[in-house]
Amino acid sequence: MLFSACLTLDPDDTPIIDAETRIKRSSTVIGDTFNVVYLPPEPIDSNQSPPTVVYTFKFWQPEFFESESPQIRRAKMENYRNLYWYLPIAIPSSAQILSYYIADIPNQDSLATEDYLIYNRAGKPVQWSHYRLAHALLRRKANIDTVLSLLKTELSLYPNSDDAYISYWSLYFQHAGRTDEALATIEREIAEVRRQRRDDPRLLEAISLMYIYGMNNRRRAYEITRDIPDTYLHPLNLYNRFLIEPDNDKRELALAAMTEKYPTHPLTPKMNLTHLLFYLSNQTFSSYRDRGAIFAESILNRRLTALRNARVNTYAIRYLFDYYASLNPSKALPYVRDVLRMDYDREVYDPLTLLGFAARYADTKDYAGLAIDLASKAIEAIEADKQKPLVFRPEPEFVQTEAARRLFHQDVIGCAYYYIGKAYLSIGDDKSALANFREAEKTCLSQQAELYFEMAKLLHKLKDGAALDYAIKSLAVKNSDAVQAWLNTSLKPKFKKGESVSSLLSTALRSAPPFSLTLLNGKTVSSESLANPLTLLYFWSPNSTMSKLLLSELQLLSAKYRARGVGFFAIDTEDDLRTVKSSPEEFAFSIPFATATPEMIVDYQVSLLPSVVIIKSGKIIYRQLGYCKDFVSQVEVALQDALLTSDASTALPNEKKRKR
């Protein structure tokens, strides 16, 4: 059984297939016509069905890891005088044939053509031949020295093969053990090539990408391309500039260039969403709030399908709704109108977006009916979603497991009833309000503290003795000065003898379920072995941009409170720390990263991201499920309250000693 393949670069030179000479000689790939020849072991029957050749084209030239999806094609072979089968394949000038095989023929190598170099008429390998062969061998886990030798040959023949520089230096650095000596050698070679090429921008971009993907040094990559204008940068370097650039104006310019030049690139939605969430998480600065609104408007005005599919439009609508509703509820109505239609876009206006609308209008008498309608639509959307299988969504706001999804569904329904109850309360219908609060109480998680407080106030108004219980329940979920003040003024006279807020609260606090965490270094930490009096558990995922953005804020909290006995753990809920391990520079935080068991996620009722749970002496004293305004500042207030009560309790014995 023999195969042969031949290419010719001269289109006017029609290849002549001679089975006896072509098949016996060593196969060499030459040119732009690819002739596949197959000599079967048995004579060919003229009635025999011709075999099929399956071959793969790639319409690209190697350029900074660019890689379009290959085009796989099939064609029937022709019978040459019952002697052999053959198929001439014309290769377009913008493509390379990467692989072929003959269907239903045993012992085929589907990467056969990658073993050949492509030569021109003068007998010199054409550009990228050694590079292509090197990567074929690399995929087969061939000897690294052989691969490096092929890449070096490519660079000696064609010094402008910039992708070969990326591969060569990256592989050399890794093969040499990532040592300082290897880095010094590479930087000497880089300096020489830059001198020879006179800092050609394309070469600088290749060097920059080598630093990013070969050495995990984004900062150095940013410095190398600093003087290249945004519009000339490759998308991977534009993304790096966007990540590293400290000036917000320059970051926006890089983002604008990326969106205009590469609207369909997968990094474009990611960059837009990251920047929008940056504004969302910096609402305390009025200038950022206004600029965020302008940026969100620009996102919607672009009308890019890629941004819509990545849920960037959803976040832009939420941002603009909150921005205008904070000025005047009527100004936010344009963002709600589309939802009132029967055929509203359910991908853009998801249940959490509808809940956000309902939450804003539930406190306003004039818009109470609208709030009820919006919350009801959120319930309908969740009921419909329950019938669908779990599908990974871009920028998920809940942990992507079936158990967490069920918690998410329950929570959204509970929150919807809570907002319906608040809307009825705003129009004076206490009976309907209480009925909906009762319904919300069954499943509401993320708004539980707020729900209990509203129920306490309503029950107190109705002269129901359960008001005190609900006020204490609210404090047990999340301590609040407003609840404390209301409790002291409205309900303290009804305390029994010997009762106090602290004594009632101590019995209402929920015990922290036992857990076990696996740290980045492989060690395990159990809840029983925690030495800190206070422990903060931060639930996040690398798939959730907002929860990832807040890691730097969590790092600051850790630096402030670690010395005071607060332990911090950043718990990856979905990725088993794979992203953290593969991007050490991006996650160079001192907070202990950990993974948890699926049971822990359910035990702590975590479905929304990001979420925080604070444990003190085996009790959960604070819980915030999902992002909210002033997320980090609220967590810090909870830490300060917990530390103040701890300091007060430890100070009492010393005071008694002084009195003696």
From TrEMBL:
Biological process annotations from GO: response to stress
Extent of the signal sequence: none
Domain Thioredoxin: 506-645
Protein's organism: Candidatus Thermochlorobacter aerophilus
Official protein name in the record: Thioredoxin domain-containing protein
